[in-house]
Amino acid sequence: MTKQVTLAVKELRKTIRGKEIIKGISFELHEGEVFGFLGPNGAGKTTTIRMLVGLIRPTSGTVAICGYDLHRQFTDAIRQIGCIVENPEMYPYLTGWENLEHFARMMPGIGADRIMEVAKLVGLEQRIHDRVGTYSLGMRQRLGIAQALLGKPKVLILDEPTNGLDPAGIREMRAFIRFLAETEGLSVLVSSHLLSEIQLMCDRVAIMAKGRLLAVDTVERLLNQQARVVWKAAPTDRARALLAAETEVLRADEETIVTPYEPSRLAAWNAKLVQAGVSVSEIEPRLPTLEDLFIELTGGETIE
Amino acid sequence: MSKLVYNEMLKIVRKKRLWVIAAIIAVLVALFTYAQYRETEELRKRLGTTDWRTQLQQQIVDLQNRLQSPSMSEEWRKYLQIRLKQQQYYLEHNINPSAPGAPTFMRTFIENAIDLFLPLLVMVVAADLVSSEASAGTIKLLLVRPVKRWKILLSKYIALLLSVSLIMLMAAVLSYAISGLVFGYGGFRLPLLTGFVQQGEDLNTANVHMIPQWKYILIELGLAAFVSVVVGTLTFMFSVLLRSTAAVMGIMLAALISGAILSNMVSSWHSAKYLFMVNLRLTDYIKGAAPPIEGMTLGFSMAVLAVWGLAGLLVAFFVFMQRDVY
């Protein structure tokens, strides 16, 4: 099944004062999916997102939104996007409603009924006529989502949407993002430096470090690629030598040997070990966490 | 576009900037009215009469006495001699130069406010028009709408022009209404002299003619509005260039105050006349007071201001449209 591409990024680069910050990244977003943008702080996630919404001009490369080129057809392209870049800053001296009204005036065909609709959607209808200065961070975050949804976008871009929320708020936000993708058919791009978050709500994930995309794939497949088998066998030395002849031994210590996970060949390896008189006590396939994956891909760079 | 301008005006109004400005004008006008009243009283006591003719004669005698003083710079002497000629002209032609009344107060208020006070009020609105959005981060939410960047900036500039008009209106109405309580509301038809031209040491009175005070005030208001727009535009440019509203205010204040200081000491530094801040006292040309640098005329000053304003506007738009927003 091929889903429609809503956002296509090709060879995007940005050089600031002679230093290349973004080193040629390409990816696509499909209709109805939640796409995770994962990387440590300083990897270039926010810079990339700013280029996607036209706040920063790329040095080279293109961004197309629903077929419109972001730079040549700015207004047509940007109309398809709703976004929160960093914190959802609003005018604190206006009410939530006035803030939404203010942004609605900048978009054609958005009236009071749509404002009420999004206010209800994010659950703010009770406090919508209060001044934003009196809102809690969670409420501001919701108002941020409300302004992003105001123009009925096809693509929603959220930069660190759970930043500063409490655990209940985070869970709620996650459910809401899934709802928008599944029920409303939006493409949602979510950036985060938190692995657990991406793992829990994204269909596909792009891993970014030092201005490059290291991998783009479904969460499942990325994890499977890196799946391991942990062997417990005695004597360990013999087992290790035998396994090394068949596959790559990634790690070994006194008790355990780690090899790549290849389900089709696992039984044969085991038979060889048994024939050679090695007693195999445990064969455990293990999926890495995204964290392991990340360390593997970046060559040891950690994320907090 | 009208919706965008509405947005910008809404923000200015809801930040209560215009109310603050109205309050500042009201308080200061009341203060000046009282000071003016005390001065008139003092003069009346000293001269024992309220006859303006006596006052004028007294002023002329004062001027003559001061001109006797040997320790006086050549420039100052020149200026006093010119003033003397002007006042003698008034006396000979039986014209009261400062007939009390709200319109006269209004006129002197505008003359004194044109180079510092009115620009200052305009700055209160202009300084944070763009910089506050940048420092609060709301600029990002503005720029990701289906509206081109130049339209967003233009809507802000139009809102600034509207605010300048409102400020001028408030200054005119409040200074008239408040001072009228003390001095009475009459005096719009009072004839005034204009057209004095400085030619070296001589006051050229060849073009001097009489116009009613209301016309005079309208001319001054127009000139003050022109100065306010130019200062507002320059402030607007700095507001685009800098994120910090305080820095914008600081730079503009320094420029305005340096203008006031420079005007008193640049008579021999001729190229200083191309600085915008020494060209702000446009009303002086109407009044016939000596310009800070010889050879400066109303047309020259307005041209210099217009060039500065246009340059500022170009820089503001160019930077705003090119800039990466972080």
From TrEMBL, chain A:
Keyword Repeat: no
Protein name in UniProt: ABC transporter ATP-binding protein
Entry-linked InterPro entries: AAA+_ATPase, ABC_transporter-like_ATP-bd, ABC_transporter-like_CS, P-loop_NTPase
Record-linked PROSITE patterns: ABC_TRANSPORTER_1, ABC_TRANSPORTER_2
GO MF term set: ATP binding; ATP hydrolysis activity
Statement: the UniProt record of this protein carries the keyword Glycosyltransferase: no
Domain ABC transporter: 7-235
Source organism of the structure: Geobacillus thermopakistaniensis (strain MAS1)
Listed Pfam families: ABC_tran
Keywords, in A-Z order: ATP-binding, Nucleotide-binding, Transport
Family statement: Belongs to the ABC transporter superfamily.
